[in-house]
User: Which sequence fits this backbone?
């Protein structure tokens, strides 16, 4: 489907489903190298997002409206590190999405903006075992695919696949940002929860774009 | 998991409601978003103090709202930093026109959420400064971590900065006093058992009957290393020596010694640790001139404790001694 | 068993030593036999108050030594009543010439040991009266038991009798005030987990992950019955209703509500129980005019709590509100 | 051997050994229906007694001196219910032992005095699941045997056997005195710890008298 407001709504609702499904897994990952709340935090946030969407009198007109609603809701319900980081990501993404539906380069711009927002807030670079390790390869892969003249759905598919690989690749890393950094060497051998939730979010984006 | 709760998702709401009912003379509880402020409202002309963080560390922070300490506290979900939409109105409630100090424990989530709230308050015309407490010597303060965690050292920061605000210091001075405490306070903790976050329903880590975690934080996160169970005096030595070394505590100095229970440890054991820690301090030729022993910064029902040492001078001692009247600290 | 101790046989000595060091401004610790008295010594002309009992209930009793409460406290071995040879010198230390009140929890051992000590003190020319606290409604007060146990209701007895002594009441009057509190105070407790006495090295009883003990005492003894785990509001109902029924609490009355932690329960859970208990009291048309929530009469690291209700009148309220300055209670 | 001061010393030292040996058992019994400290309490007391005996400059001259030392030491070191009860028992017993060695009727008198002391302090009668349920049959059996003209050693042997039976017979009882009474019906099915320690003490008396 086209990356229009209907897609944005579908993406967000699908994300809520996927996060709910993987709530325990995400908290479990966080329990190993953090404080065990990441699944609960994300689920609380996306349940609230869906609640707000359901309560809207008029449906949002644009992709940007949907993303802004997600941003403010996550900001005020998730808490922890992930709340402000994802909140900023969606807020920055909202700012670059155009009026109607996104083409491939707009999709890339959206991902770039999200990544920039996360880095601006969290000051992490790649290799620090954070969600940046999922967002960075996702954005790079999206840029490459878009350069080949692919569809917006292909862009998101490439981003999702790269985010999944990026999340897997956090396993051997020693964390140097976020709560996992307190563990030092003991953080190695575990997958980063934030990178994992990023992969789920982008997979939901790709699947809904592909009409799956 | 056996807990005196009704519903994991209602723990913070119901507990804060009960807290507000029990201490209605001292605090007012606001709901949706949830925060706690002084019963009388902000004191005109006084710098406001706001702190907050994940719940599960009670009495921190709401237990320290009152005369001579905090003006407002913002409890997040259990072990999860509160959100800006709660911190911002707490900041407004704490503002008496002289600006507000945010006392933030050094966790990425806390720092980011307080930062955003400060921006919101600034947009409302409230001047906000923030200090970040990072007293946990178990974590190396290096390029390769998010810095040290803020743990039990938060109590003297809130107490002493609160006294400075109460005596009429301006925002910059109150912030400087808080920074002085932060620069001179260090903590290290141990866990004998893990704790169970209500919605998680199982322990935050697994420890056998013969293991303990040294260098634990206050969020049920594992510590820096795991060792076999040892006598209290040895454990106290493992906590206190890094604290004293990092402080560079020397002969002739005076300190506040805080032995803080993690929630599930009997007071009798805390006093055994206090006794041992005090001896170690005195062995360096320093003197313990102020003491605090009890559950102040907890991790739910975790068994264990932390040892906090604050280097005192006359100013900090006088501010520590200044009157305080809150649900959890009073003199 | 993992505990912050060095040697099971040294727990009380070392812990009381640490307690004395931490609170040297308030208390003096005597060793061999071990007892704790006020730092300044007995106040001439004031009735002295002495309590004591097995250790493991901290802060009870030593934490309540100080202005407006006890003059001396005698800690026995863990969960074992102290011996007359310790109670007697504590009585002497507490005597300011106006006689001494023994506040005894109703256990055969405590009663017998305090009785013997009173005889010894009497032989020294010190007038001693004793009151026996028996607030635990979990135990039937009948010919077929040793009577009700004394549990958390001991705190208001010590506080209020202490205030009466401080204002200058004579021995008979202080004893009468204590009796009045005893007549109007009731408690019932629950355990979610057992506790482990250091020298025993294993839990005092076995509870599965889904069971709790209702009607527990404070010595790690099993309760009256075992039920499946339930929500906090239901458990609170099971504790509070028998207390209110036994008190015969009616509409328009005023009470003190004390929710006491058994040692291993987080403050947040105690406030959830407080909230529920308060609603039950208010549902009877009575009002909670004074509150206390925290660990006051513990059973080592046991998880659980007790609910105590004291019927107040103007005199008891004024005495409750009177200044108190002890390590564990201060206003 | 004759029930003289040498016997009294042997009895007390044997008691200390037996109590130490059965410390865990006694606490275990107490854990089931009390607070789990009876073994620890009794052992603390008898360790102190032996310590005091060892520290004496001159050996005690009479049985009464030994029993008085036991009484005051137990009183000041055992605590709990057992401390004052046993303390009083030994104190009363000391008062009725004659100058030299005990004959059969003096042995009976000693047991009677001990029992009376326990009852005077604790106000328990038989069937309340306390140490009285060991001391009472022990005293009765001693009286009967003494009436038959038996030796002092036989008197103590009969008392010990009856105390053992009495302790066993506490198992089905519902406690109505002491800490076990708080359990109500749940106290049935368990042997009373104080009755059990009484049986050990009297067995030590009989065995040392018999020269075992
Ligand atoms: N500085 C940072 N930059 C980017 N991502 C971060 C940073 N700090 C933490 N994170 C991400 O946040 C995730 C943890 O989120 P969450 O568990 O919800 O918050 P908290 O750590 O406060 O409990 C980590 O797995 C990591 O991916
Ligand atoms: N009123 C009483 N009369 C006689 N014996 C008693 C009485 N109360 C308790 N006992 C005895 O004391 C024993 C318990 O002693 P102990 O465990 O040392 O003291 P405590 O009960 O104070 O912990 C019981 O098993 C019982 O035999
Ligand atoms: Mg987390
Ligand atoms: Mg968290
Ligand atoms: Mg006992
Ligand atoms: Mg016992």
Assistant:
């Amino acid at each position: 489907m086209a990356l229009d407001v209907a897609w944005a709504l579908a993406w967000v609702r699908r994300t809520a489903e996927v996060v709910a499904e993987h709530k325990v897994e995400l908290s479990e990952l966080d329990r190993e190298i953090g404080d065990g709340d990441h699944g609960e935090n994300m689920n609380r946030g996306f349940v609230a997002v869906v609640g707000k969407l359901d309560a809207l009198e008029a449906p949002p007109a644009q992709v940007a409206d949907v993303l802004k609603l997600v941003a403010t809701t996550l900001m005020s319900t998730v808490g922890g590190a992930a709340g402000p980081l994802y909140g900023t990501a969606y807020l920055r993404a909202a700012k670059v999405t155009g009026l109607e539906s996104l083409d491939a380069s707009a999709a890339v711009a959206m991902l770039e903006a999200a990544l920039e927002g996360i880095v601006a807030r969290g000051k992490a670079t790649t290799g620090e075992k954070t969600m940046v390790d999922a967002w960075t390869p996702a954005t790079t892969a999206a840029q490459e695919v878009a350069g080949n003249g692919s569809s917006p759905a292909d862009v998101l598919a490439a981003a999702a696949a790269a985010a999944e690989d990026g999340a897997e690749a956090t396993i051997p890393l020693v964390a140097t940002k976020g709560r996992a950094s307190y563990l030092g060497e003991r953080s190695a051998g575990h997958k980063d929860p934030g990178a994992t939730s990023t992969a789920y979010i982008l997979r939901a984006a790709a699947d809904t774009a592909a009409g799956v | 998991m056996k807990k005196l709760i009704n519903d994991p998702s209602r723990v913070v709401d119901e507990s804060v409601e009960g807290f507000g009912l029990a201490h209605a003379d001292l605090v007012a509880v606001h709901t949706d978003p949830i925060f706690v402020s002084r019963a009388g409202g902000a004191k005109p002309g006084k710098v406001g103090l706001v702190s907050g963080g994940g719940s599960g560390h009670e009495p921190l922070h709401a237990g320290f709202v009152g005369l001579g300490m905090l003006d407002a506290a913002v409890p997040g979900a259990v072990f999860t930093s509160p959100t800006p939409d709660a911190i911002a109105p707490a900041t407004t409630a704490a503002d008496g026109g002289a600006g507000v100090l945010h006392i933030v424990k050094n966790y990425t989530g806390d720092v980011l959420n307080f930062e955003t709230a400060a921006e919101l308050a600034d947009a409302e015309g409230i001047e906000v400064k923030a200090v970040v407490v990072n007293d946990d010597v178990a974590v190396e303060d290096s390029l390769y971590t998010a810095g040290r965690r803020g743990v039990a050292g938060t109590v003297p920061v809130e107490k002493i900065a609160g006294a400075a605000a109460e005596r009429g210091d301006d925002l910059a001075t109150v912030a400087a006093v808080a920074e002085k405490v932060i620069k001179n306070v260090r903590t290290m903790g141990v866990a004998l058992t893990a704790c169970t976050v209500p919605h998680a329903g199982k322990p935050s880590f697994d420890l056998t009957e013969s293991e303990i975690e040294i260098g634990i934080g206050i969020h049920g996160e594992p510590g820096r290393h795991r060792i076999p169970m040892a006598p209290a005096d040895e454990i106290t030595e493992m906590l206190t020596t890094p604290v004293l070394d990092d402080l560079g505590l020397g002969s002739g100095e005076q300190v506040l010694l805080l032995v803080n229970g993690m929630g599930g440890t009997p007071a009798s054991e805390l006093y055994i640790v206090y006794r041992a820690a005090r001896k170690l301090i005195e062995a360096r030729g320093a003197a313990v001139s102020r003491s605090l022993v009890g559950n102040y910064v907890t991790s739910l029902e975790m068994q264990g404790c932390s040892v906090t040492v604050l280097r005192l001078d006359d100013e900090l001692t006088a501010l520590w001694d200044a009157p305080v009247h809150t649900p959890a600290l009073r003199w």
User: Anything to note?
Assistant: Helices of chain B lie at 11-22, 84-94, 108-123, 154-166, 171-183, 232-247, 267-283, 314-321. Chains B and D do not touch (no CB pair under 8 Å). Chain B has eight helices and twelve strands.
